Amino acid sequence: MKKVIFLLSIFMATSIALKAQTKLEPLDKDLSTVNYPYEVHFLEFISQNQPLKMAYMDIQPEKPNGRNILLLHGKNFNGAYWERTIKFLTTEGFRVIVPDQIGFGKSTKPQSYQYSFNQLAENTKSILDKLQIKDAMVLGHSMGGMLATRFALMYPDFTKKLILENPIGLEDYKLFAPYQSIDENYKAELKNTVDTYRNYQLRFYYDNKWKAEYEPWLNLLAGWTLHADYPVIAWNAALTTDMIFTQPVVYEFKYIKTPTLLIIGTRDRTAIGKDRAKKELQPMMGLYNELGRKTQKLISGSKLVELDGVGHLPHIEVFNRFITPLLDFVKN
């Protein structure tokens, strides 16, 4: 009963650090006016012959249990949206590391960068090496699930456990939709507004039920569209969309040997390129109620937790239902 009460208190907690983002306002490419829920550090390094800064949070628990968890964000987000998850895990004794990938959040938005999941995994590993962290459990949501998959394959000895929360890339989108060039992606990104983002999130994340607690995460994304820096953001978004579409990980699940948990909101229908696919193919894309089960069969020994009636964002939409299986997995 005490655990249930504690879970509810975490779920109902109001974000203080991101309170300002309950109001839509212009945001520059570095989110310089946004305070993250925990102190932000930067790794400065050279990649692809250019200087870059990668933002990350490193949250130490008051009573360490000696274990580390790496949280990897999705494409339409940054590390800040893990706030409640961080609070809960650190209370349980875990050290939590939360990067903003290059091209996202407070990290550098390069004009020219060859995005790949291998490169992002290597960048992330550089942070962990700087912090002298020898191993960690890795949790990835959405695009972060694709990255977490590649990370686990590149660094199997480092990755103690793998958790995939509604990861995209559970199917090869190229088999359904025609390729769209980066230039075309860019033109599409430039058309985004707060309304297009909200409508998309209502459709895939929250089942047309909008709550005030969703507003900060929408505004962090939509605020960019109001700033003169938005073309830089849109260009990087176009590059990362191309990465997702052209670099499927579905064929590599069978090689994962790391203990793996899949947390799948079965209402989710997210699929890259669905709007470009033939109408008769669109209903076949992004069927997470089927894809979760198929993926479990591909990853030897993996465990699947299905969250019925939940969309693409379980750790925001239904935090209690998300955190319970996560905690069971990472503590045992």
UniProtKB/TrEMBL annotation:
Gene Ontology biological process terms from the UniProt entry: acylglycerol catabolic process
The record places domain AB hydrolase-1 at 69-195
Q: Which Pfam families match?
A: Abhydrolase_1
The UniProt keyword set, sorted, is: Hydrolase, Signal
Q: Give coiled-coil spans as residue ranges.
A: none
SUPFAM superfamilies xref list: alpha/beta-Hydrolases
Segment forming the signal sequence? 1-19
UniProt keyword Signal, yes or no: yes
Per the record, its GO cellular-component terms are:
membrane
Which Gene Ontology molecular-function terms are recorded?
monoacylglycerol lipase activity
| Protein name in the entry | Alpha/beta hydrolase fold protein
